């Protein structure tokens, strides 16, 4: 079985087997590539998310792993075994769909037991495994209800139990919480995280919800137009995006287009197209070629505001408030800088009086709080 070297959150290094491998995978629809030569490894026991906008190829990728679509080029391996000629029902995976795909004419118990009966297992084993699955998703008391008698969250739990009862090596989740309202989605995120931690199974989830991917995943693959833009931990994806697409898609950011004007040992100076001079802390992967076109990314929560001019020599700009949006826990400010550029600023709500629109204001951020990305 293939293995990869990883370091866990406690800093302990170990060789971790791979449960899912995609090698130069292509999938075409009407001669157009839906998946364009992607490579990825999913480690055993990992919660791995494939994140991207509608039409980026993420669901097609999940269907290729499940076997519902066949690859046109490349390889899919599960637990080191090629899956090219293995039909979906013989792959060691189970899929949880956004629509739940429950059988309306069967009650909760029979929905969960359905796959086990197809395997012709003994009744005693089926009963034991269904009871365990019901207990796992906290649905013991609703075993006799039909799908139409369940809430969305309860139906989702049944769909999860039906997938888990077969004891798959890999659980595939296709937008599993997309049909739920916000409050219930938050609750189910917590339940899903607990299930993953307690079971130790490999989860591969497809979602377009950035917050969902960030809070649940060990690692994330960000897809765009059939290709993978970046793979990394939630912290790496958010704090150190490698492309302007990832920076813009994951959370909110302020992007400035410009070129490198000065390169020093500890920082890089960028002149934007609108005339701002922004200084960025230099990292190992920071572009350093003079006159190179770059994007500067600054997250809204990294920007500070002041009614008075701070005694700062870099990354401090004068402007005026053009919008103030109260969000409860936070306040979103839109600042128009003197050069005409608008920036978004997100600050915690400290229960003070909010400044009014057109108030003159200064926006500033640390050199280490912005990032230069090659265009």
Automatic annotation (TrEMBL):
Protein origin, superkingdom: Bacteria
EC top class named in words: translocase
Subcellular localization(s) per the UniProt record: Cell inner membrane
Membrane topology note: Peripheral membrane protein
Segments forming domain ABC transporter: 20-250
Catalytic activity field: ATP + H2O + polyamine-[polyamine-binding protein]Side 1 = ADP + phosphate + polyamineSide 2 + [polyamine-binding protein]Side 1
Cellular component GO terms held in the UniProt record: ATP-binding cassette (ABC) transporter complex
InterPro entries, alphabetized: AAA+_ATPase, ABC_SmlMolc_Importer, ABC_transporter-like_ATP-bd, ABC_transporter-like_CS, Mo/tungstate-bd_C_term_dom, P-loop_NTPase, PotA-like, PotA_ATP-bd
Assigned EC number: 7.6.2.11
Record's keyword terms, sorted: ATP-binding, Cell membrane, Membrane, Nucleotide-binding, Translocase, Transport
SMART domains documented for this protein: AAA
Molecular-function GO terms, alphabetical: ABC-type putrescine transporter activity; ATP binding; ATP hydrolysis activity
Pfam families named in the record: ABC_tran, TOBE_2
Family matches, as PANTHER family: SPERMIDINE/PUTRESCINE IMPORT ATP-BINDING PROTEIN POTA, SPERMIDINE_PUTRESCINE IMPORT ATP-BINDING PROTEIN POTA
Function: Part of the ABC transporter complex PotABCD involved in spermidine/putrescine import. Responsible for energy coupling to the transport system.
Family: Belongs to the ABC transporter superfamily. Spermidine/putrescine importer (TC 3.A.1.11.1) family.
Subunit-structure text: The complex is composed of two ATP-binding proteins (PotA), two transmembrane proteins (PotB and PotC) and a solute-binding protein (PotD).
Name of the protein in question: Spermidine/putrescine import ATP-binding protein PotA
